Amino acid sequence: MTQILSVVSECAPLIKTGGLADVAGALPGALAAHGDHMRVLLPGYRAIMGKLGKTTVVDTYRDLFGGRATLRAATAHGLDLLIVDAPHLYDRDGGIYCDAGGQDWPDNPERFAALCYVAALIAKDGAGGWTPDVVHGHDWQAGLTPEYLHGQDVQTPFVFTIHNIAFHGNTGADRLNALRLDPDRFTTDHFEFWGHISALKAAIAAADRITTVSQTYARELLTPEFGIGMDGILRARSSDLTGIVNGIDTGVWDPETDPNIAPYKAPAGKAANKRALQKTFGLVKSDGPLCVLVSRLTEQKGIDLLLHALPTLLDNGGQLALLGSGDPALEVALLEAADHHPNLAVKIGYDEPLSHQMIAGGDAILVPSRFEPCGLTQLYGLRYGTLPLVALTGGLADTIINASPAALSAGVATGIQFHPINAQALSDAFATLCTLYADQPTWKKMQRNAMKQAVGWDTSAAAYHAIYADLTA
User: What pTM was estimated for this model as a whole?
Assistant: First the structure.
């Protein structure tokens, strides 16, 4: 049995802002099926501490980047947890990354350096008698871990997963001492990035293995367009880079048992959920497809493209129910568009039960992202027979079988992909969507295909297991 310490900034269902949390929460259970044991190291945010119940103190730190801290062990929601209880860093109003005004916490470098520093101490000294064989860090928030492992002269292998390379965790070189980093390693070979400390680059440079969340995204990261300044070092490390598509928790996302919806086993069972969803969003019955979109509202997610392409969907009898928040200008534009069209309904915010209801009740789910490392939304859509309409990028390219003439003739299509990623191509995809929906025998076949797709963690967990086994052989 390999013992793995997962170092991550969020983990569902305890704390979540996006898909990273879903992955962190699902991976331990998936690995257990392969005989591996994963413990999750998390910051002790106020929102987490109230959900833990009984905890056991396994270590204390007199000065963890500005204050006293305690390492606590707990079990919650089937997860074995280690919590860095450092009130001076994590016990505050606002979000886990940003304050109530949406601005990054100014001490984020210290907040997540503390998480990494504790990870290295656990690798060195253990936690309550438990010591990891492998440390697995996720995104920049865990990026300084290998620097602290090096500083403690710890040889524990480090695996690093890039969920979204757009976020680097950069800060000024004047923080070298404050972050307890070795100034001799502030070089282009380690964590120096254009004169700044880069937590992301630190992990890419020093990890024993690098993974990312789809095969296509792994290839995309090696290009200037998608590598966002890290393509050079990733090309140098390409032999250690692997793409592993995320899975979803098929227990939580199961149309037969989902407590948030009218359960169903086959596409015909979606009708009751569609009627309920139309009622929730104030939409009337329509002859066209009901599309749903659950997303952050940003240009990365293609929301500006959606605004330009929407007339094609709506003019062909289609509808859109949208749930999300993000760029204030995009929020306003969507709300204004909804005021002018009865077949468009927008709710600003996030609501987990409602997201389940939308995916169960929609005919199609939209993911028009300019880039999407893996994406989980389209996997939820497949599971629920809600056909994904997606951009041809990243994990969206790897998980959907496009409704091309060949795929339709062979009876294997599971959704619609569009490329190039622009408003005209999305508009054309909407036209294709409406044509396919009008051909109900073909549409039902695609839905059945979608619901048969393997979207769980079995294959992906086996790939991670193989990496851990190789590093500890």
Answer: 0.92
Number of domains in the chain: 2
Residue 18: per-residue pLDDT: 83
Residues 368 and 398 in one domain: yes
**Residues facing residue 250 across a β-bridge:** none
Residues 221 and 320 grouped into a single domain: no
Based on the fold, state whether residues 56 and 143 are members of the same structural domain. yes
258: in domain = no
Q: Alpha carbon of 194 to those of 142, 204, 308: distances in Å?
A: 20, 16, 37
Domain that holds residue 146: 3-247+457-472
Q: Exposed, middle or buried, 87 (CB in 10 Å: 0-12/13-18/19+)?
A: middle
Q: How far apart are CA 461 and CA 397, in angstroms?
A: 20
In a domain, 293, yes or no: yes
**Model pLDDT for residues 308-364, shown as the tens digit of each residue:** 999 999 999 999 999 999 999 999 999 999 999 999 999 999 899 999 999 999 999
Residue 351 corresponds to which tokens in the numbers above?
A: 């609501």
How many angstroms separate the CA atoms of 203 and 141, rounded? Answer: 10
Residue 397 lies in a domain: yes
Instruction: Copy the structure tokens of residue 432.
Output: 């294709």
Asked if residue 381 and residue 330 are part of one domain, the reply reads: yes
